Amino acid sequence: MDDAMTKHLLTEMRTLAYLAGIKAMEIYQTDFSVEGKADASPVTEADRLGEEIILAGLTKTFPEIPVLAEEAASEGKIPTLGERFFLVDPLDGTKEFINKTGEFTVNIGLIENGAPVMGVVYAPALGKLYEGAAGYGALLYELGGDAGLNESNKKQIKTRSAPEAGLTAVASRSHRSAETDAFLETLNVTDFAAAGSSLKFCLIAEGQADVYPRLGRTMEWDTGAGQAVLEAAGGAVFDHETGEPLRYGKESRGYDNPHFIAWGKATA
Q: 98-157: per-residue pLDDT in tens?
């Protein structure tokens, strides 16, 4: 993929995530209703309307690239995926959205040959938008107050080397498991930060944490964009059982992920 195409894709993904985030914040500030999906997970109007915005934009601009999106997939609408496809989670951290912690994100990732090569993660309540692409690096846009998407409010981010004093671990605020705690006890962890949604990848990407173990079920749309940002910033995500990089397009698994560990620079 040449530089012009990379920039074109990132610009569109960034813009659509931003627009979906605006819609999410409109709903977030109301007394919105919560429904249950077939798997008993919660869903809100923000999930559905955000996905509509993103799908409409991607289909218009990149009609040749199929999209695997959470809400559509929950209704059985899964397209035939080739070597390149988008992953969309319009509202990762729905429980955080419902509980109004601010730790929810809009996620758009691009997969090529099983690898996450590009991703945008937008946390609208926190005013932070992360993006990254293989060979391009990772950026953070600070969008607090009236700041919009422009070149003046972005900075490059990178993972940090493992501190000699010990690691900072980050794990799910809503989905912490005993197995995760047991794994963390095997490491030299001296600090801990809890976070919701794909923000955990992003905390490592910007050098605020070192390791994120997820020893529980996730879906590909939960992780693709965040993994792309983290890897672009110098990190890595490994299948906990095999030690191989976490891959995508796992149709035989129903597009769920194995347990994985996300690492920052020089910590694996």
A: 888 899 999 999 999 999 999 999 999 999 999 999 999 999 999 865 556 776 789 999
Strands (E), the chain: 35-36, 42-43, 67-69, 84-92, 105-112, 115-123, 128-133, 137-142, 154-157, 167-172, 189-195, 211-214, 236-239, 260-263
**Separation between Cα atoms, residue 203 and residue 221, nearest integer Å:** 18
Transcribe 74-119 into DSSP letters. HTT--PPP-SEEEEEEEEE-HHHHHHT-S--EEEEEEEETTEEEEE
Q: How far is CA 190 from the centre of its chain?
A: 25
Contact, 219 vs 255, CB < 8 A?
A: yes
- Tokens at 119, concatenated: 């991703």
Q: How many helices (H) and strands (E) does the chain have?
A: 7, 14
Instruction: Sort 103 into a burial class: Cβ within 10 Å, 0-12 / 13-18 / 19+.
Output: buried
- pTM, full prediction: 0.93
The tokens describing 69, both together, are 């999106």
